[in-house]
Structures are given as C-alpha cells and as structure tokens.
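protien #1 (seq + structre)
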Amino acid sequence: MLACGALPAAEPEHPDFSGIWTAHSETGQGRFSGFGGPRADLPLTDDGRHRIEEYNKLLGPERANPGAYCVDYGVPTMMEMPGFYPLEFIQKSDQLTIIYEVENETRRIYIGDRQLPPESRVPSRDGYSAGHWEGDVLVVKTTDLLDGADQGAHPHSDQATIDERFSLGQDQNGTKIITYEAAITDPVYYTAPVRIQQKYEPLANGFIIPYRCPDEFWYELLDMRSKQLQEGKPADARMSDVYKAREAKE
C-alpha cells in the first residue's frame, strides 16, 4: 500500500534503451562483424556498380579488410553487424549515446529540439543523427556522411541519408530486445532504398573494454594501391610495403 498522500511512481514517457547489448541470437548475425562482401540484391546505379568494382580492385590479393586495420565501422555498419562485440546505449531525454566496443566508436543521436545547426556539422563515417519520438519508437535521420565505399556490404556515397527506427520489445521467449531498422537512400549509388534490420538482446554482466589501434595504415595502403592503378600496375601493395615506406621516412 502507498503511504498516505504518496503518489505512485510515474511511468517513463518513452522506452529506455540504456544498457549493454549484443546481437540477438535469433538474427543469425551473432558471429559476424565488420565489412563483408556486397549484398547480391543491391539496387545499384551505374555509379554504384562502378564504385564497388573500383574498390574491389584496391582490396588486393589478400582481400584486405579495413576492420582488421582499426578503421571505424561507421553507420550503419556498427549498428547492423556488431558480432560478438557489445554495444552500450546511454539514454538521456535529449540524447542517445551508443558506444561500440570496437575502437570505442561512439555515435550520438540528438533528440528533439537540441540540434547542431546544419552549417556547423562535420561529415564523418557516423554522420549526424537527429531523432524524435513517434509514440514508443525513436525515429532518427542520419545525414552528413562521408563516402563509405569500404563498408563492403552496402557502400554509400556522401549524398546518402539513413532513416532509422529503434523500438523496444520482447522475443518469443520473453527476452527484452531492441529492434533496429534502417533504410539507406542514396541518389548516387542506389535506385531504391537499401533496407537493414538487426535485433539486440541484453548482455548479462556486460562491460565495454578499451579497444584501440591506429587506422592510418589502412588509408596509406589504399593510397599506395590507387597510385599503382594510376600507373597501370596491379594493385598488389601489401601492409608490409606500408611499414617499409614508413621506415624509409624515419
């Protein structure tokens, strides 16, 4: 019973996504993370097809993986393919912060009227994310993205926008889950939106562990292979060549 004059605790106005999460086992993506090959069903424009073909030439004989060289995954890859690495959601009334253990990559979704003016936004792999509530669903539009050609599953240009939806529910076993849905709209690479869905479940007693290594080696490798292609040579430079070039400068 409530004490005389006491009021019952108010129900939260919106779902709270706070906590440590990992890929939901039923999605079948728990074992995957990072930069896979391009999806077979992508509605590519000629520019999109050319961009993928161009990037594939830079991958070299070992099919180099940017994730292995510490490159931030960016949006939407960090949301879609977390693998065994956890995500932490920290929610406030005007901001949802999402921290991915890999690279300690952090994205911020600004909710409501607290938004950075468009002229002050800096393009990045994660872009700029503005959110609002539609009932119990957090609806987010992500803009100001860099060209994400090395996000192999579904690259996007710097003209892309990503419409995202976060909702809280339960699976058939009663486990709490976050359902994440996204649609990439890109007039440069795609003729129709590319749709994504992922689900997350709580990671019991989970922690985010520090994870950091330099990513500039990856970009130096791509630059080296680009120069080889421009000179009419095979793009077969290896990371060992990057190390040697750095040593020669010292």
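ok now protien #2
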Amino acid sequence: MALTDEQTAELRAALKRCSPETLEAALRFRDTGDAQQVPTVVYGIIERHLSAEDVPRLAAATEETRLVEDLGIDSLTLLEIVLSIEETLGISINNDELRDVRTFGGVKSFISAKVSGIGAVAEADAGPQKRRFDRDAVATVLPQQYPFLFVDEAELEGDTVRASYTVRGDEYFLEGHFKGNPVFPASIVFEALGQAACLWILQSDHDALAGQQGAAATAGNGSGHGEVLFASMETAHFHRRAQPGDRLDMEARLHRIHPPLAIFNGTVKVGGARLAEIERLVLAFGPGVAEHLSTRAQEEPAAEEGKEKAADATSGQTSG
C-alpha cells in the first residue's frame, strides 16, 4: 500500500540522520513490501547509532561480526536501534525475541523473518480514561520537588499527558535570568515537559508498562526500584519568551515505547500560542538505567573526538 504524504513525512523525519540510501530503501519497502530492501535499512539504522570510530568496523562487518564485542553497541543503544527499525518497517519486536541475537548477520536474518510475518495490528477499541493530578498528587509521584517541580497539574489520557505550570516570578533562578527582565529559561521549559513525560511513565496503564511501575519508580521517592532518566533529545525549538504570569500548557505524546525506553514528542503553549516543541525526547526507565547512561557518557568523549577527526579528513582541513 502506498504511503500517505503524512506517513512519508514521518518516515523522512525519523530517518533524517541516516544516509539517503537508507531512506530510499525504507520508502521502497513501505510502498512495495520488497523484503530485499530490509538489509539496507537495517545497516543504515545501525550505522546512524554508531560512533564515528565504530563505523569503519560496520563497513567491514561479516555475518559473524558481534554487536557488543566488535561494534561496541551497548544494550540501550541496541534498544534505540530496535525502536528505529520498528518505526521504519512497521513491525513489533519484543525483548524476549532479541535475547539470542548476537551478531550482525543475526540481526539481518531476524528482521527479515519478522518482515515476512507482518500482519495487520488490531487497535484497541476501548476509549482511554482520563486521570487528573493536582500539584500535591504530582509531587507524590515525581522525584522532582519544590523548588524544582514545574508541573502544577496534569491529566493522563491514553498515550498523552497534558500538564500546566504557571510562572510565578519568585523562582530562584529568575533573579539572574535576566536582571530587571525575568525570563523563564528555555531549558526549564524543556525540563517541565520532561517532568510531564516522567509522570506518564510512572502512572500510565499502557500495556508495555505492565509490571514496570514499581521498577520504574524514580530515585528519591523512597522506592529504591530504579529510575526515570532523560536519555536524549533529537531536536528542540523555542519560539518565544515565557515570563512571570504566563501559564505553560504542555502536551507530551508517546511516539514509541520499548522498555526500558520511551520516546515522546511534545509542545508547550502560552495563551494558545506555541512557545516550544520537542521531537523524540527519549526517557530511560527501570533498574540499572543510570549505570547504562553513565557508561555511554564515558564513551562519548572518544566518540566526539573520532567525529571531529572524520570531519577534518572529509573537508581536507586540519585543526590547529
């Protein structure tokens, strides 16, 4: 079935950091169902998630190349790859199916087998119930507390959380941001939207979170069952200023979830006018996520150095 213009635009946005060949193969697969396009798509998505120093290893990969030992793919990165593949190819993969996938060839074979079994996915018919939280209820759930709690009230409905926060003017950081002209920082606006998304993870009855609620409880609330942490953010845009007296109306919509990762898109408005928007805000949740992110952070400096060297080599310039 041919993709609609909206579906094509979504696919282009999801693969905008992948190679043109990856996008072309994905579009052809979604249009025609041609399974021969799958290896190109899988290769391109894996490549997009590798550090610059690991990309040459992928180019030289054989069917026996190991994901962890040879390509340096950790468990969280693998899940991000899986989420991208699910979204691109329109398939669903559960964690149990991945346990025996250890090699590059194994990934391609597994995805090709999944593609061959694609069928219609039934949508749940029951209408989602709304759940409302006042500030006291929000504070009971979230680990963020005054003076760093930026959700006054919230409402959960299906895959969406809507929340609000009124800029009071007495927030401790406004005195220096800016002197004589208080402006609510863009970073705190994004933080507020992220807190709303955290609330969704901790309180939603989504099927993917079954059995995860206790494990997803964030540090600082006395549960000791794990954390919800910001993992990454694809793009963020800020359109205007927020100042004392403004009410921030936030909406975070679940884009995809595959425990322990959840991806949200969100908007923030003031008086109906768009203030900010975030695409692909990734939250990691559950036991052990802090250790995973810490390991990734330690690897980033080397990866960034590799990217700089690759950029210099491509442009023919040398850093001085």
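Residues 289-315 form the longest helix (27 residues).
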